[in-house]
Amino acid sequence: MMRVKSLVGAANPVPAPEREQQPDGLSARALTELAALVGTPSPSAAPRRTPRRRLLMAAGACTVAAAVVVGVTAVLSGLEEPGGGPLADEPFYASTAELEEEADLIVLARLGAGREETADDSDRTVATAVVAATAKGADPGRTVEVSYTTPGSGPETADLTEGKEYVLLLDAQDDGRFTLVNTTQGVYEVNGGRAVAGADNDVTLSTGVLKALRLTS
């Protein structure tokens, strides 16, 4: 130990008053040489840094992974409506009460011939339906004009055929026409005195509505 101190003193030519300004009374040079002798890390030694290129690559990988997760989530959320419907662009009602509450008018009507129109870059059919009975809403009179997406023109089209009788659940529009509450649940085909829901619709009409229309489910 005495030899170490003598070596430190010999290696440090800085006068004593200046040495006292350094930690433990040693100059930076003395501390460095002491570290070489006894294995203590030099105070001037800097921590090893991760190369900038590696950091940039890691950040880029994280960004790509986040983008993939967001994209997959968006695709999956678009496959099904939060209410349970098969498409995200229109509402779907999980219960009879919700469905019938949404409609401004519920009628039993026979669909007449339609004419095609183009509005907002979509093909629509406008048809006059002859009303046989009304279950909800103000009495529309003998006929109502129904506007719906032309069958076969896109993924959201109702299965409507001229001359057939349907229960129609309709929303009133400002121009006096009516539209279906949605393409899946706005139409119940009438067959043998029964209101038959479509393949993608498991919601039945209420007893009160069926009674008003003189139908069964």
Helices and strands in order:
Layout (H helix, E strand, L loop, with lengths): L1 H10 L4 H4 L8 H11 L13 H28 L16 H7 L2 E15 L2 E15 L6 E7 L15 E8 L5 E3 L6 E5 L2 E3 L10 H6 L5
Parallel strand pairs: 3-5
Antiparallel strand pairs: 1-2, 1-4, 2-3, 4-5, 4-6, 6-7
Structural class: alpha+beta
Q: Give a short account of the largest sheet.
A: 5 strands, mixed, barrel
- The order of strands across the largest sheet is 1-2-3-5-4
Q: State the helicity in percent bands.
A: 25-40%
- Taken in chain order, the helices and strands follow as HHHHHEEEEEEEH
Reported CATH architecture of the largest domain: Beta Barrel
Number of strands: 7
Broad shape: elongated
CATH class of the largest domain: Mainly Beta
Number of separate structural domains: 2
Rg, alpha carbons = 40 Å
Indicate the mean pLDDT. 76
Unreliably modeled segments: 17-21, 72-88
Strand content: 25-35%
Q: Quote the distance from N terminus to C terminus.
A: 103 Å
